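This section describes the prediction task in plain terms. A model, or a person checking by hand, is given the sequence of a single protein chain and must write out its three-dimensional structure as a string of tokens. No templates, partner chains or ligands are provided. The sample shown here is typical of the held-out split.
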Amino acid sequence: MMVLSNFKLRNTVTFFAIFSCTFLLFSSCKDKLSVNKTELTFSANDTEQQVVEISTTASTWQPAAQQTWIRATSDGGTLLLVTVDPYSDMSKPRSSTITVMAGSAPSVTISVIQEAKDTLSISSTSLTFEQNETDEKKITIRTSSTKGWELSDVPSWLNCAKNGNELIVRPIDTNNSSSERRAVIDITAGSSEVVKLTVIQRASPTFSLSPETSVALPSNQSQTTFTISSNVSWSVSSSASWLTVSPASGSNNGSVTVSASANSGSSSRSGTITFRATGFSDRTITVTQGGNQSLQVSTNSISVNNTAQTRNFSITSNVSWTVSRGTSTWFTVSPASGSNNATVNVNITANTSSSSRTGTITVSGGGRSETISVSQAAQPAPQQAQVRFRKAFSTPYITQLGVFTTGGSLLASHNFGSSSGTSSYFSITVGTHQTRYYETGTWVNSGNPLNFQANRRYTYELAREDADYWYFNTYDDGALTIQQGNMIQQGNNGNAVPLEVIAVPKNR
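The expected answer:
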């Protein structure tokens, strides 16, 4: 029995010895992982990166954040880089974890805590001081931040002091400027939002008016505007019912429109506008409106032809007036002065010039004037017709053809000599004229007088002959731009028969 017991004991010892050696060998082969921080704390607005050092025997390691507001990354070496999103909750902090894993080593957990956002409030967000006020005013500050509160953007004209949870504010001197002083002071406390305090010191009072002189308005319904430069309250009033103001009150810079109704009387009238401003004496402006003085003419232009004639125009007025014709001497006006309503005659001489002429009549009265333009056409150029001459055959007996007035004055002719041919056109005055031929030293009528019309062309020809007669034709060639040759007369022996051939006996 004793031998068996010893054998069991030896086997048991041997088993535990082998197990211990195996466990120690296995443990010595497992990866190791450690960190230098297991807790990270961030403020609500903290965007700074925090770093955790990683120590491991594994070839790689990786982090895993449990919440999306935590960003955990590796720098590619032995550092864990951790940042968080801003946190806006003022009631409580928030927390989560980052798990770091490396090979076969047990994972390591890092706690991440983000503090609640600090609260900040002030008893008033604005302070106003009068222009000459320098006494201090107090603002109460309330915050949950353990870091206290701070000021920034304090201007040089303000004195700001901290006293526990109070901010003491006062201007360092009076404001002698025409512009108010204004400052916006930023107050911060830990991670709280910025609270702004507006401080105003009123400007030195100003009030000016433009224009500050009396104003004259016409008789018709009219307006005028006054410009106010000010930093105080003001009001405006009128002494006359025909004068109205808008607006009747205001503050700071502005403008006031003064409206006058039409003055139906012939005499002028006046009223006053009074401006009142806080801290300033009254400003009174006199407004004068002219009487209803009227002056009108019945026309603004007179236009005539070249002949001498008289024209007139009417004046409608309730004032005295004068009429002038400037430097023009080719017409006169009558009467040259008067009052109230009247008729003025304009006596115009004939224009014998080939150029037109213009002048001006000015009617003035009651501070008003009316202008009438006067124009006269030029002497028209004499109306013209054109005639040409044709000799259809050669003869030495009739050498010339011509056109004469019925009184015997030569208007146009052409000398053919003994040859035949056609002349160019000659311009002649319009009217009833006589066609003639020149035979053996004498001009002889070839037919009845003809009416030569303006802007038309004619052909007078020696058409043919026989043993006893000369034969003549006259054609209307038509308008100046047309050549169509309608026969208007045939004749012989000084007798004309339209479109019938009549021979003229030869004078030889």
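For orientation: The first strand starts at residue 33 and ends at 35.
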